[in-house]
């Protein structure tokens, strides 16, 4: 008897659900979580504020808020909503929880030096991040034509990952790679899923995240370039 | 299902004794008498159109979509369908099927077909039990080894389960034309009630060996991917049906594709999957009226190949 002929499979053979079911996950979680979306927005504003402040305590706060976002989107969206229709989403759910634990440890124990970047640079980092994290959720709205499908940071995993990667530049390169592994895996998984589903607009998100993640593996900001 | 006789089992047993009674569900269906085929190993009749659940019934906890799929299943039963095929591989499809059957109170109406899909050859009964609990049924009518995964130990256990009355029929599945040689070997050597394989107006490899072998060995054939996963519609739906389609009993493309399949003498039923009531109605139309004869079947295949 021969083994499995993997070359006879295509990506769509592994996709267990259609676009309608996937896109409705966002509508459902927003309906069920209402009005807790407010917390997600406050988290976003706080991170932007801490990026502008840029001191040691602020850096710790950014990582702690990121940890909360990974925990929330992992345990909520991935384990509760996405996992039942797609087994790998459950594995990612646990991965997100692990990433939240890692971020918490880094936030609490990492010995940052006291240097902060120039105020203008910090201002640009904070506002730029806020603009990006505020606009990305609209991709899902554009894809579905439904405001209820908005994919907010802290709730939707894709936007959470995309918004986290630039913040991870706060960490020096020698430890940063550890935090970039899951974003890398997630972006590949998500890009493959969205490509196969044919949801071309939101496909942009994991591709952009993947690019950003790959750059972040090697990018080594000089103090003057640092977003902090 | 094991202890009490359902209406369908009672009818089936009557049919097996040579007595025939009209099934009320079938009488109510549109278009007259449903086309059925006997399962060779028992003589029990099966309507030629069943229902698949891959992708379509994996909707998780989405209650809005669960209600929609329940309507699809309701239409299937109202149109005289009975055989529903699922697998533990299909995400939440088993759970959703269980919910839909509960809502419709239709455990008596379904010919429940499921699969064993685990590389752990010792987990056959465990997986059967897990799926049974999801469907809220006492036993599956048909249990199949999915895609030949660990087929030897699973098949041994399925034989024992059949002997114990824990399932009524056993079988084995493949799809996409994969491992046909292995399947043929198993069909030659094992006492299978059913095989499941891919066959449609474009994917016709099964005609060479597997379908004649099934006929010769008295094995019922379930045909999966009858629409090639939907791509037959995407390719041909905008094309006109041939002028002679009505003579072959086909009023639309769904009937054209399905009647091509179920008119093969070795085929027992086809199991198209759909998320839409309208499509289910179209598909169930293939269970009524005339079927194409051999010459018309050749013409159908040539027509599609020429488009
Ligand atoms: N190895 C195995 O054991 C194996 C492998 C493959 C499949 N299977 C079984 O076989 C079943 C059928 O195969 P499948 O689901 O892969 O493919 P299929 O039945 O050939 O095609 C399903 C697709 O056809 C579309 N469709 C159905 N009726 C239609 C109509 N009247 N008009 C237009 N479009 C229509 C559906 O879309 P809409 O939802 O829009 O109607 C769906 O996208 C599966 O569900 C599964 O139970 C078993």
How would you sum up this structure, described in words?
The complex is a heterodimer of chains A (228) and B (307). Chain A is mainly α and 228 residues long. Chain A has one domain. Chain A contains nine helices and no strands. Chain A is globular. Chain B is an alpha/beta fold and 307 residues long. Chain B has one domain (45-306): Alpha-Beta Barrel (TIM Barrel), CATH 3.20.20.100. An eight-stranded parallel β-sheet of chain B has the order 3-4-5-6-7-8-9-10. A two-stranded antiparallel ribbon of chain B has the order 1-2. Chain A binds chain B through residues 1-2, 5, 8, 12-13, 15-18, 20-21, 24-25, 28, 81, 84-87, and chain B through 54-56, 58-62, 64-65, 89-92, 95, 148, 176-179, 181-182, 185, 229, 275. Chain A: Keywords: Membrane, Transmembrane, Transmembrane helix. Chain A: This is MFS transporter permease. Chain A: Pfam families: DUF6064.
- How far is the first residue's CA from the last residue's CA of chain B? 47 Å
Unreliable spans of chain B are 1-7, 13-28
Helicity level of chain A: over 70%
State the secondary-structure class of chain B.
Answer: alpha/beta
What structural class do helix, strand and pairing data of chain A support? mainly alpha
Keywords (chain B): Signal
InterPro entries (chain B): AKR2_Oxidoreductase, NAD(P)_OxRdtase_dom_sf, NADP_OxRdtase_dom, TAT_signal
Protein name (chain B): Aldo/keto reductase
Pfam families (chain B): Aldo_ket_red (PF00248)
Top keywords for this entry?
heterodimer, A: 228 residues, mainly alpha, 71% helix, globular, disordered C terminus, B: 307 residues, alpha/beta, TIM Barrel, eight-stranded parallel beta sheet, two-stranded antiparallel sheet, 12 helices, 10 strands, disordered N terminus, binds NADP nicotinamide-adenine-dinucleotide phosphate
In short:
Chain A is an all-alpha fold and 228 residues long. Helices cover 71% and strands 0% of the residues of chain A.
Topology:
The complex is a heterodimer of chains A (228) and B (307).
Chain A: H1 19-33, H2 37-53, H3 56-82, H4 87-109, H5 119-135, H6 137-144, H7 157-167, H8 173-197, H9 200-218
Chain B: H1 7-16, H2 24-28, E1 36-38, E2 45-47, E3 51-52, H3 63-78, E4 83-85, H4 93-104, E5 111-116, H5 124-135, E6 140-145, H6 151-164, E7 167-173, H7 180-189, E8 194-198, H8 210-217, E9 220-224, H9 231-236, H10 253-262, E10 269-270, H11 277-284, H12 294-306
Parallel strand pairs in B: 3-4, 4-5, 5-6, 6-7, 7-8, 8-9, 9-10
Antiparallel strand pairs in B: 1-2
Helix pairs in contact in B: 3-4, 3-11, 4-5, 7-8
Bound molecules: NADP nicotinamide-adenine-dinucleotide phosphate.
NADP nicotinamide-adenine-dinucleotide phosphate (NAP) is lined by residues 52-54, 56, 85, 146-147, 173-175, 196, 224-230, 233, 254, 271-276, 279, 282-283 of chain B.
Protein name (chain B): Aldo/keto reductase
Organism (chain B): Marinobacter vulgaris
InterPro entries (chain B): AKR2_Oxidoreductase, NAD(P)_OxRdtase_dom_sf, NADP_OxRdtase_dom, TAT_signal
